[in-house]
Specification:
47% helix; eight-stranded mixed beta sheet; single chain; alpha+beta; 24 strands; 25 helices
Length: 751
């Protein structure tokens, strides 16, 4: 009898399994897209037939596994933790271990498993025996099927095989639902986008029809109850499209042509303030939101900006009556429709403004030509910019301020002249702060427009507030002059009535601001180069400093050949003096000597090639040509000797016995940049340099030795004495030399 009873029980269990599997298959056929219903049925049948207290399915989401379905006795805290906890492949959890090993994982007792570390969840669930079965999609473990028992009671092989069968059904259900949803969503999105594009092509300039199609498709695909599009027009914000279960008359009556302020009180205000997509899960529960929830009876809302560049020209709004959040996929879809609406608005704007754009471009061209002809006359350039901005933007007054540190000062205007402005503001520097509209534009580096400055400055003090109180300024637009990310000033346009400037006017002022910024930057660059050239002349000869900053400088620095006159001069007995004197005394003498000789070098248009200690090398006729450069070098040497004699008398009283000698030669040399990357000099190379150096070495104290060619060039103008032939190092033959005594007439230094 016992064997017969066991057989009957096995048959009953087999029929129950087959019935359960058949029921799930039938449910999958009847409801292929209702994944949660199918998974609940799979979990219910598997847990019931295998004697498990709980069952769950966890699916792969990116790199982690999340709970997708749960069956068992209700335990809110356990379920919350289970749904919030993600798992990754690893041995510390059943799900992670199943994903890692890619096979069935059976843990008879989790408390005896040293690798299992999910103790908090185990305590909440109270389970002891666990079974995990992988759900494969191709080679990927797309999910894990889990059964648990609260007692230590391992699953039998027959039960494990049954769970495998249910897991296979779960895989099919998940994959079918995924593919069906992906296909359906993609088809609906493409159809909706195609419908909008078709409307745009057929109704190119019927903007309201296109925007209504955008809103209608967005509402339908995102399961919203209604939707609207608000557009910024020249006379303010208007609701240009309303679809779904919304009363357009009520919307117009309660919303109408009201200004939208950038604040947190409304959805559109937040979009304008944050310049991005804004979602509110429950408007009734949002303490900052107070814009019409009672009138329109909505809870969840999303707003997406319609943009043109950095400007917001409209807002696409979707609403739901229930507090059901919009998913990331739905928000992305709304942003796609918003892009289409932006394109439609921009197309119409461009079509309607073609003639105006041509006029503006002509005017801008005129301004650019004025800028080009004005060179570095910044005041004239800015006055021209202000004049054209006033005419084209229909402003009653235009002023341009220029930034200086933490203040800004009047640089141009007002155009036309305004006695009240001159009296109240004038040319006094104004601090840059958020208390003025111009200051805000500077600090925020963006255009700032205030429709009514009288209200804006009602309780304020200062020049800007005073102008508003005398009704000189009502609407004010301030646009920063920005170049390379730096605010160089602000252009301000005003009207004496409340009449905001249109977005097109703001764009045009931006263009004028760019031109003014270029003009200021050009002048500042010119001033910087000039200042750097002056600083450079402190370290280089003035002629070399000019050469480095000139257009022909690069060519000359690369190397060239030219006749020059070279003068070497140094102190006699300097080595002995330096060995016996204190270092401070030596430096003091050198400073006095270099300062005096340097003044004479510059005065006589010499180019100082280098100085080393007491020695200096100077050449003439490069980089600037010098008429009769030989004579100019002799004039300089005689002046140096006279100046040295004056200094030597003072040094002699302090016990310093120093002398001064000079050697001068003339001839061709190669000149240009000498040195290495990071350290260059402008120098001369050639026999003329060597000859001048050797003559300087032979010169006695107070003697100025000239080469034969220098003597021939200066003989009509200078008193000289023949020294004879000198045997100079490096020269195979003796070299004739002459000593310069004085000039025959006190001829002036050549300019």
């Amino acid at each position: 009898m016992g064997g017969s009873a066991d057989l009957e029980q096995q048959l009953a269990e087999s029929r129950a399994r087959e019935t359960a599997l058949a029921e799930v298959l039938g449910l999958m056929r009847r409801a292929p897209g209702e994944l949660s219903v199918v998974l609940d049925a799979v979990l219910d049948r598997a847990a019931s037939l295998c004697g498990a207290e709980r069952a769950s399915i966890h699916v792969l989401d990116g790199d982690v596994y999340r709970t997708a379905a749960f069956w068992g006795p209700r335990n809110p805290e356990y379920e919350r933790v289970a749904y919030e906890t993600t798992r990754t492949p690893g041995r510390e959890t059943l799900i992670g271990r199943t994903a890692l090993e890619r096979t069935v994982v059976h843990i008879p007792d989790v408390l005896a498993d040293l690798e299992y570390t999910a103790r908090d969840l185990q305590v909440l669930g109270g389970y002891r025996t666990m079974l995990g079965v992988p759900l494969f999609r191709g080679d990927t473990v797309a999910g894990v099927f889990v059964l648990t028992r609260n007692q230590v009671r391992p699953f039998s092989e027959r039960e494990i095989e049954l769970v495998r069968a249910f897991a296979d059904q779960a895989v099919v259900a998940v994959e079918n639902a995924r593919l069906l949803k992906a296909t359906t969503d993609a088809l609906e999105r493409q159809t909706a986008i195609s419908e909008v594009l078709k409307e745009m092509s057929q109704s190119v300039f019927d903007l309201e029809r296109v925007l209504e199609s955008v809103a209608l498709n967005a509402v339908r695909l995102c399961a919203a109850d209604n939707g609207s599009i608000a557009q910024l027009k020249s006379d303010g914000w208007r609701m240009v499209a309303n679809v779904g279960d919304i009363d357009s008359e009520t919307m117009e009556r309660n919303w109408g042509n009201q200004p939208i302020e950038a604040n947190r009180r409304s959805l559109t205000g937040r979009v304008l303030m944050d310049k991005r997509t804004i979602t509110i899960v429950d408007a009734l529960a949002d303490p900052e939101y107070d814009a019409g929830t009672g009138v329109f009876k909505f809870r969840s809302i999303v707003g997406v900006p319609l943009t043109r560049g950095e400007d917001i020209v409209g807002v696409l709004i979707l609403r739901r009556h229930e507090p059901t959040p919009f998913t990331p996929e739905e928000i992305h879809l709304v942003e796609t429709f918003a892009d289409q609406a932006s394109i439609a608005i921009e197309n119409v704007r461009l079509f309607n403004k073609t003639k105006d754009a041509l006029e503006r471009q002509t005017a801008i061209g005129d301004v650019l030509r004025r800028i080009g002809s004005a060179a570095f006359n910044l005041e004239l350039v800015l006055e021209e910019v202000a004049k054209h901005a006033a005419r084209l933007c229909k402003a009653e007054s235009v002023v341009i301020f220029r930034t200086f540190g933490n203040t800004y000062r009047l640089a141009a205007g007002p155009v036309p002249p305004n006695p009240d402005f001159d009296r109240i503001v004038g040319a006094n520097p104004q601090p840059i702060g958020l208390d003025t509209i111009v200051g805000r534009a500077h600090l925020e580096a963006r255009p700032i427009q205030v429709a009514d400055a009288v209200e804006y400055y009602r309780d304020a003090t200062g020049g800007a507030a005073d102008l508003a109180r005398v009704r000189q300024v009502r609407t004010l637009l301030a646009v920063p002059l920005i170049r390379d990310g730096v605010v160089l000033g602000v252009i301000s346009l005003t009207r004496s009535t409340v009449h905001p400037f249109t977005p097109e006017a703001v764009d045009l002022v931006r263009t004028f601001a760019d031109q003014a910024a270029i003009a200021i930057a050009n002048v500042e660059l010119f001033q910087t180069v000039e200042r750097q050239r002056q600083e450079l002349s402190r370290f280089l000869s003035p002629q070399v400093a000019d050469l480095v900053t000139s257009e022909d400088g690069a060519k000359l620095l690369d190397g060239h050949r030219r006749p020059i006159t070279v003068a070497f001069c140094d102190l006699r007995n300097f080595t002995a003096f330096a060995e016996s004197a204190e270092p401070e005394e030596v430096l003091g003498v050198l400073r006095e000597y270099h300062r005096a000789m340097g003044e004479l070098i510059v005065h006589h248009q010499g180019t100082l090639e280098h100085f080393a200690g007491d020695g200096m090398m100077i050449f003439f006729n490069d980089p600037l040509p010098v008429e009769r450069h030989e004579l100019q070098a002799v004039r300089m040497a005689l002046s140096m000797r006279a100046r040295f004699n004056e200094m030597a008398r003072g040094w002699r009283k302090r016990g310093y016995e120093l002398g001064f000698g000079v050697g001068i030669a003339t001839g061709y040399a190669t000149l240009g940049r000498i040195g290495f990357e990071g350290r260059y000099d402008y120098g001369a190379i050639g026999n003329v340099v060597i000859l001048a150096q050797r003559l300087s070495a032979e010169a006695k104290s107070g003697q100025i030795l000239l080469s034969q060619r220098v003597h021939a060039a200066v003989e009509p103008d200078a008193e000289t004495t023949a020294v004879g032939e000198l045997a100079l190092k490096g020269f195979t033959r003796p070299v004739p030399a002459f000593a310069a005594d004085s000039l025959k007439s006190p001829a002036p230094v050549l300019p």
